[in-house]
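Hi support team,

I've been running sequence recovery on a batch of backbones for a student project. Most finish fine, but this one hangs at about 90% for roughly twenty minutes before it completes. I'm not sure whether the input is malformed or the queue is just slow. I've pasted the structure tokens below so you can try to reproduce it. Let me know if you need the job ID as well.

Thanks,
M.K.
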């Protein structure tokens, strides 16, 4: 089944017209019929925003079910409880200090030198694609403070063109926490990274220089000042 066919299944499931679906995702009339192999990142974001119960993996790759479980429809935001429970999951841990390198990250994540216990919230299903990163420095202030620990999920390489928001990314020989300002992987094979702290600039990164990308899901601990 193609992406176009899955979108038409979604439209049937929603009980709306194709024209209304296209209008809600900001697309022109006839857009669905014009889809060849994939959908643009902007339209994917709009679909996920307008219809949050749609399973993104199913939409893109046909994996799993069309609809998320009820507890998965909410955006996972905020700080987890410190109260440990039987549901605690062991997650790999990496310290993103200013001198961190890709080799160190690769060895740590693949071999799991350090781990932390994380309590899932809001129906999270934490698996071995999740990593906790502790960050340092003030480049992401005010969003993230130095020493904040964030729960992240690895983005498969075939989905890098859809990456957005705050990410932990390794490129060339460094590991940093940045916000994706522009994702132009499908166009010019590059992304533009920026800091939330206006005192820092931005940087263009070529696709060929990227080793891995982790999507920041939520903060699990952060100092309050």
């Amino acid at each position: 089944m193609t992406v176009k066919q899955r979108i038409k299944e979604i439209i049937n499931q929603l009980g709306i017209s194709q024209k209304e679906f296209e209008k809600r995702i900001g697309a022109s009339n006839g857009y669905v019929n014009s889809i060849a192999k994939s959908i643009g990142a902007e339209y994917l974001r709009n679909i996920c925003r307008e219809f949050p119960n749609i399973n993104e993996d199913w939409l893109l790759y046909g994996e799993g079910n069309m609809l998320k479980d009820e507890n998965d429809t909410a955006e996972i935001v905020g700080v987890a409880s410190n109260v440990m429970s039987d549901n605690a999951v062991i997650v790999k841990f990496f310290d993103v200090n200013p001198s961190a390198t890709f080799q160190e990250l690769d060895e740590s994540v693949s071999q799991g030198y350090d781990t932390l216990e994380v309590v899932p919230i809001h129906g999270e299903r934490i698996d071995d694609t999740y990593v906790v990163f502790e960050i340092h420095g003030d480049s992401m202030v005010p969003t993230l403070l130095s020493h904040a620990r964030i729960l992240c999920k690895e983005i498969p390489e075939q989905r890098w063109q859809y990456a957005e928001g705050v990410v932990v990314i390794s490129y060339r020989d460094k590991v940093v926490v940045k916000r994706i300002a522009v994702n132009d992987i499908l166009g010019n094979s590059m992304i533009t990274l920026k800091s939330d702290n206006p005192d820092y600039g931005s940087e263009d990164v070529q696709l060929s220089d990227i080793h891995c990308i982790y999507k920041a899901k939520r903060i699990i601990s952060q100092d309050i000042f």
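--
Follow-up from support: It reproduced on our side and the slowdown came from queue contention, not your input. The beta strands are 89-96, 115-118, 130-135, 149-155, 165-171, 174-184, 190-194, 202-206, 210-221. No action needed from you.
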